[in-house]
Write a structure and sequence with these properties.
The chain is of the alpha+beta class and 529 residues long. It is built from 17 helices and 8 strands.
Length: 529
């Protein structure tokens, strides 16, 4: 396809500048987002083993509920019944006392079980919040600000991301056929990075379009709904009224589950979430999944159920039972979360997320190298300060993100209940800032060798923490995958460090990736390799 040269050149400039502005933030979003594809297994991996008795059957659960409410009347306000128990949810019943530490304070969750002789057993702990931190890093592109401040910034970055996609596609169109499967390995490192960048970007294009569009929807979600309300009215739904005496007892959980299976055979309930305000009838929200449909939340849909007769009374968030508008809105969430199609889709999204992070990293590398050639043509013999800073950030930000997440994951096992959200956040940002500062201090060439080795070491702290914590932390052999992936990633980072060392040794002497000090660049460029 033939396009005017001036048009391609203009879009190449747009693609480069938009990519360089948003690329580092998008690396954090994609790397953290890839990890959140397995948020539930990660939560189980990070949760300490429980000392509670095994969960009672659903038929004995009313006895457990009665004893908990008698001993802990505050639980009547709201409690959960877990139909599937694991290390993250180790008991049939739980309730949470909210803390006062802000938006990310999950409070203390109390889990209850029945001993073999029928006694009440309660264990209090806060759930591991490391998975929540990683999810927040993904949502807020690594910004350490309040959610209300970070989301509009994330939305602006998503808009730039969409511009980068369109401009990159226009730049690639003239050479699409000849360069589609080209991967030219050799001494021209920039050409190799460009080929890899083009191939990864083109074959993952539908995924990136989905991510960009859905991220924009998420970022400006409230503004979209405000505009809709202003244009069409709020459209309040009629309230579901219940003429149930406050003293009436809800159906036993086993009957609730049986009634759900009759009304929605494909919906698998995972948790019954009860809530009751003083003087009001109880309400019940059932969280579950249906493999045939996408879900509004990352891992589940929600059904509103009458707790007194088991009738489904709310389907706005229930997969397979939504009206057209609710299903359309849910499709945006499902496409972003990848919560349809089971594990094959989750693994595909994980790999595409890692490939996306690689795409933004290589994009920055290409921009820095193009800048070097442009400065040489302009007569510069030493890289400009802005180029050297950008090169250092290209190394420090991605590696700082990788190392920070690795260390705070290991801390989840080593510190146990002491590692709350604020502690995990502090660990991540300390490691992240130190890595960025090191890159700025040492320069891109030296930091490009040193920081990947540091990140490899931090990756190995994850399986090391598992060994220290002991086998009791493993809730099933599938959780070994977390440690195996960490070991493989550590090996990849060592390979990356070796490649950076070879680039510093054999690359052009006037490049910021060369193993020469800035002071020696002027001499080196007089006789470039």
């Amino acid at each position: 396809m033939k396009l005017p040269t001036d048009l391609v050149k203009m879009y190449k400039e747009i693609h480069g500048w938009v990519g360089i502005i948003s690329g580092l933030a998008l690396f954090i979003a994609f790397y953290a987002g890839a990890i959140t594809m397995f948020e539930t297994p990660l939560q189980r991996w990070a949760s300490p083993p429980s000392r509670l008795a095994p969960a009672p059957s659903l038929e004995r659960t009313p006895e457990l509920v009665a004893k908990v409410l008698a001993a802990h009347p505050e639980a009547a306000k709201g409690y959960e019944l877990h139909l599937q128990t694991d290390s993250a949810n180790p008991a049939r019943m739980s309730w949470t006392v909210r803390g006062e530490g802000g938006d990310h304070d999950a409070g203390t969750t109390h889990y209850a079980a029945l001993t073999p002789d029928g006694g009440l057993q309660v264990e209090s702990r806060g759930p591991s919040e490391v998975a929540e931190l990683i999810d927040v890093l993904h949502q807020q592109v690594g910004l350490p600000f309040a959610h209300e401040v970070s989301m509009p910034i994330m939305g602006a970055i998503a808009l730039l991301y969409m511009v980068a996609i369109v401009s990159g596609l226009i730049v690639l169109l003239p050479s699409l056929v000849s360069d589609l499967f080209a991967l030219r390995l050799g001494r021209n490192v920039k050409r190799m990075w460009l080929d890899m960048h083009n191939v990864v970007g083109l074959f993952s294009l539908p995924f990136h379009i989905i991510m960009a569009l859905t991220a924009i929807v998420f970022a400006f979600h409230d503004q979209f709904y405000d505009a809709q309300d202003a244009a069409f009215g709020r459209g309040e739904r009629p309230a579901v009224t219940q003429s149930i005496p406050v003293t009436a007892s809800p159906l036993p959980p086993a009957q609730i589950v049986a009634r759900l299976r009759q009304q929605a055979p494909g919906f698998t309930p995972l948790r019954l979430d009860y809530h009751q305000d003083p003087g009001e009838p109880a309400t019940l929200r059932v969280e579950g999944h249906d493999a045939r449909y996408g879900h509004r939340a990352p891992t589940y849909g929600i059904a509103g159920v009458d707790p007194y007769d088991g009738t489904i009374i709310g389907t706005d968030y229930m997969p397979g039972h939504q009206d057209g508008w609710s299903a359309t809105v849910t499709s945006f969430f499902a496409l972003h979360f990848g919560n349809f199609g089971g594990n094959p889709i989750r693994w595909s999204y994980f790999l595409l997320g890692i490939a996306g992070a690689f795409l933004f990293y290589t994009g920055n590398l290409l921009w820095v190298e193009s800048r070097r050639k442009r400065e040489r043509k302009a007569g510069a013999v030493v890289q400009s300060r802005s180029t050297r800073i950008l090169g250092a950030l290209t190394v420090g930000v991605p590696i700082g993100c990788i190392a920070g997440i690795s260390v705070t994951l290991a801390a989840a096992k080593l510190l146990g209940e002491a590692a709350r959200y604020d502690a995990h956040s502090a660990i991540y940002y300390v490691v992240f800032v130190l890595a960025v500062a090191w890159a700025l201090l040492r320069g891109a060439a030296r930091a490009g060798i040193e920081l990947p080795l540091l990140a490899a070491a931090t990756m190995l702290t994850i399986p090391a923490a598992s060994l220290i914590a002991g086998a009791g932390w493993y809730d099933g052999p599938a959780l070994l995958v977390v440690d195996i992936i960490a070991i493989v990633a550590a090996g990849a980072l060592v390979v990356m460090a070796r490649a950076a060392r070879n680039r510093a040794k054999d690359g052009p002497r006037d490049s910021i990736w060369a193993g020469k000090s800035d002071a020696g660049l002027a001499e080196a460029t007089s006789n470039p390799c």
